[in-house]
Specification:
Elements: H1 4-7, E1 19-20, H2 21-38, H3 52-58, E2 63-64, H4 66-83, H5 112-133, H6 142-155, E3 162-163, E4 175-178, E5 184-188, H7 194-210, E6 215-219, H8 230-239, E7 245-247, H9 251-268, H10 281-291, H11 298-302, H12 324-329, H13 341-358, E8 360-362, H14 363-373, H15 379-391, E9 395-397, E10 408-411
Parallel strand pairs: 5-6, 6-7
Antiparallel strand pairs: 1-2, 3-4, 4-5, 8-10, 9-10
Helix pairs in contact: 2-4, 5-9, 5-13, 6-9, 7-8, 13-14, 13-15
């Protein structure tokens, strides 16, 4: 299946053209300009601390594709942060026979810790960008939603993930199965049409009667109808017991699924860049598992495929048909003012990831970046969190007596 959002991409193949070394240097300058504006004194070169000599050494043919130029800059800047100076261009060079490019050396390879931090920062940016445009779950069709869920389950190495479980030619693409904790059937239906819902419930009933699956999960945000609807009557018959489960998804969970889907598409097309790496889909899946980036996805927690790490008070529970009416009548608990423990944990993780990849940062820039990522924290809360990380020796303040705008922070490796 090709998702609607991706169909426009397959009509033609677009190749990123190579650029001249002057154009590559201009790309470097555009990326460094924001830093240069804050520097005092102003750097004499638009690409400082880099030099065009490295471009000429690395690409003697005089042309380079933009991504390679940016990856070279990232490698060189990482080396500067670790050694305090730009690496010297070697007297003798090794030339790639296929591309004619010169291998840059010495360049310090990124550490697994730095790669993981780069992945999480990239994920957080993509997750936030998607959240700006995602307004409702119905922006996606039911087959698109189940496809995104399948991709995530495969990344988590859930055993025997299989599409098309429902015995219905029309609605089989609304379902998948896996065997994480028994033989499970997951059905995701967001069709507002209650006639369609009736036929989906009939198919769920056949799965239940055949006992080919130990449990059925129904995921649906749309209305279920009323007791006068045959579809709702079947729904009550199938999901009123303790075996099968009805889940009402939240928008943030779909945001998690869509974020990963976008990254899968980028990795499959060779367009995903994490640090100095261009991971394929299998390597992306490894990043996802090792980072635990999906652990706070409410829907995955409810499905039992990730362990709950967030405050359980913030997690909507599985809907029980017997208690749903009573629960609606209860007043919602009033949350205390200020950032939640989840906000603080997210800010701390962001700070450590940023310091891991950057090694050295100014206090003011770090505070501004953290506030942009976690708006629930004001500057005083972020500064307090930074001081706490300093006390735990995870980052270090190089000049504690300097004014806040002049303070420098460095990362302390574990």
């Amino acid at each position: 299946d090709i998702d609607i959002a991706d169909r426009g991409r397959v009509d033609q193949q677009l190749t990123l053209r190579s650029v001249t070394l002057d154009q590559a240097a201009a790309i470097w300058a555009s990326r460094l300009s924001q830093i240069h504006r804050k520097a005092s004194p102003t750097p004499s070169s638009l690409i400082a601390p880099l030099t065009k000599d490295w471009l000429e050494h690395k690409y003697p043919g005089g042309r380079v594709d933009p991504r390679s130029a940016l990856m070279l800059a990232e490698q060189l800047i990482r080396d500067i942060k670790q050694t305090g100076k730009l690496p010297a261009i070697p007297a003798q060079s090794v030339i790639d026979e296929e591309t004619g490019a010169v291998e840059p050396e010495p360049v310090t390879p990124s550490s697994p810790e730095s790669d993981r931090a780069s992945f999480e920062l990239m994920w957080q940016k993509e997750f936030k960008d998607i959240g700006k445009h995602l307004r409702r779950i119905s922006q996606f069709s039911s087959p698109e939603l189940i496809r995104r869920l399948q991709e995530v389950l495969e990344a988590l190495e859930i055993p025997k993930v299989q599409r098309a479980i429902l015995p219905s030619p029309t609605f089989t693409s609304y379902s998948l199965g896996h065997e994480h904790s028994g033989r499970v059937c997951v059905v995701w239906s967001e069709d507002a049409n209650l006639t369609s819902f009736f036929h989906i419930m009939r198919a769920c009933g056949r799965v239940d009667e055949a006992r080919t699956r130990d449990r059925i999960y129904l995921i649906r945000k749309e209305k279920l109808g009323t007791r006068s609807n045959r579809g709702y009557q079947l729904f009550e018959e199938i999901f009123s017991g303790s075996k099968n489960v009805y889940l009402k998804p939240d928008l943030e969970s779909v945001q998690y699924l869509e974020t990963y889907h976008r990254l899968v598409n980028a990795a499959a097309g060779g367009e995903l860049v994490i640090g100095a790496k261009t991971p394929n889909v299998e390597e992306l899946q490894t990043f996802v598992r090792e980072s635990g980036i999906l652990d706070n996805c409410t829907l995955l927690q409810q499905l039992g495929v990730v362990q709950t790490k967030a405050d359980t008070a913030d997690i909507p529970q599985v809907i029980s048909l017997k208690s749903s009416k009573a629960s609606r009548e209860k007043p919602k608990p009033v949350k205390p003012p200020g950032p939640s423990p989840r906000d603080i944990a997210a800010a701390e993780r962001y700070i450590l990831n940023l310091m891991t990849t950057q090694s050295l940062m100014g206090m003011q820039v770090l505070v501004e970046n953290t506030q942009e990522q976690t708006p629930a924290l004001d500057s005083a809360a972020v500064i307090s969190l930074i001081h706490s990380l300093c006390d735990r020796n995870q980052i270090q303040m190089l000049d504690p007596n300097a004014k806040p705008k002049d303070q420098l922070l460095c990362y302390v490796p574990a």
